[in-house]
Amino acid sequence: PAHHPFTMPHPDDVDLLDTAEGDGWLDIRSQAYDLVLNGWELGSGSIRIHRSDVQSRIFEILGIGEEEQRAKFGFLLDAFRFGAPPHGGFAFGIDRLTALLAGEENIREVIAFPKTQSGADLLTNAPGPIDAGQLDELGLRVVPRTD
Fold first, then answer.
1. 114: which of 33, 74, 77, 100 lies 20 to 30 Å off by Cα?
2. Cα dihedral angle (127, 128, 133, 135), rounded to 10 degrees?
């Protein structure tokens, strides 16, 4: 559940959500899929959770209590209570496929607007400075480093 909290556990493992403890969570298989070619992950996908009880239990396992679940995900849990069909998807990573076809080891070489390893965008100089109004709106403050 920690890797992706919206991926449906394998049907045979759903009951483990109520009994697993400690490292037992690692025994719960998910319905997640990857397409890998010679060590390159070309695509991935999963079956999403479509049951309110399962989604709520995953949130509990991750430390999200009932009140926070209602505040942040109430719309989703309510929708599941009305019935949602099993659903999922799969997508290819075009940038990774392009890197593989081009013989590049680093996908940054084929991405149109790559970020540096530190997350900076050299084309737009992002991330940009944050003004006091933005910090106030988000309830944040800048604290000097104490290295």
1. 33
2. 30
- What CATH superfamily classification does 11-114 receive? Bira Bifunctional Protein; Domain 2 (3.30.930.10)
pLDDT at 107: 87
CA gap 111, 91 in Å, rounded:
17
Contacting residues for 47 by C-beta, under 8 A, at least 6 apart: 7, 8, 31, 32, 86, 87, 88
Say how far residue 54 (Cα) sits from the centre of its chain. Answer: 17
Contact 50, 87 (CB under 8 A): yes
Tokens of residue 143, six digits: 């604290």
Integer Cα distance of 137 and 104 in angstroms: 43
Instruction: Please report the pLDDT score of residue 3 as a whole number.
Output: 63
- Count Cβ atoms within 10 A of the Cβ of residue 8 and give its class: 0-12 exposed, 13-18 middle, 19 or more buried: buried
Cα torsion angle, 64, 66, 69, 71, sign: negative
Tens digit of each residue's pLDDT (9 = 90 or more) over 31-83: 999 999 888 899 999 999 999 999 999 999 988 999 999 999 999 999 999 98
**Which distant-in-sequence residues (6+ apart) come within 8 Å of 17 by Cβ?**
1, 9, 28, 54, 57, 58, 61
